[in-house]
């Protein structure tokens, strides 16, 4: 089995997200640690965090996958942007301590013209500044579609970042199906081959979570436009094979498809139906 859920809004607090996901029928979820386009985040109320943790345990939820802000760019050429990114990362990880065992995923960044090599160096430098041996959060680099100067467009780039991080046991990867496809990995025609390649370069033991999205564009398009399950270029059969793949079992699958609540509920039940 896999854990299935979608993105939820943190507006009404943490325990409220858990109750919403119970209503939706899922058993994991994601949320933006702050406004995805930037800005501040509210402090965690300890009682609210404790209520969510109790709900997660009682209902056998899988690990949550908190998502860092899109504006966080650890390898920006602009020093202010880069410093802000590091500050967001640090504060987000401090908050994650309320949810031990959960994941924090983020977009590695965009090198903004400095070159991939420099990007890799700067992302690793930021991670080396914030990861601690005692933390109970695994930090996940997201596989990216490769729009513009986006980093994390290949398994090789992700490996290169991981290789430069001292506490690399705190690092993993979030496998976004839309992004991987858009980056040029054919998970429709050769899922086994792509996962094998991932295993050789990064190791499947580093694949902690999946962003489960169909794509509006063909393989290799570098576009990053998500589509509803089964309505894009991946299609229902390929998405089903991904959800049932032995290498991906017991992991949280997060829907980031263009849906309202009722659309998410429908997709969660579609995925649950595959597992029956
Ligand atoms: Fe993402
Ligand atoms: Fe994603
Ligand atoms: Zn995306």
Which tags fit this structure?
single chain, 276 residues, alpha/beta, TIM Barrel, eight-stranded parallel beta barrel, two-stranded antiparallel ribbon, 10 strands, 39% helix, globular, binds fe (iii) ion, binds zinc ion
Structure report:
- The chain is an alpha/beta fold and 276 residues long.
- The chain has a single domain (3-274), classed as Divalent-metal-dependent TIM barrel enzymes (TIM Barrel).
- Helix content is 39%, strand content 14%.
- Strands 1-2-3-4-5-6-7-10 form an eight-stranded parallel beta barrel, surrounded by four helices.
- Strand 2, helix 2 and strand 3 form a beta-alpha-beta unit.
- Helix 1 runs parallel beside helix 2 (46-58).
- The longest helix has 18 residues, at 79-96.
- The radius of gyration is 17 Å and the shape is globular.
- The mean pLDDT is 97.
- The chain binds fe (iii) ion (2 copies) and zinc ion.
- One fe (iii) ion (FE) binds at residues 67, 107, 142.
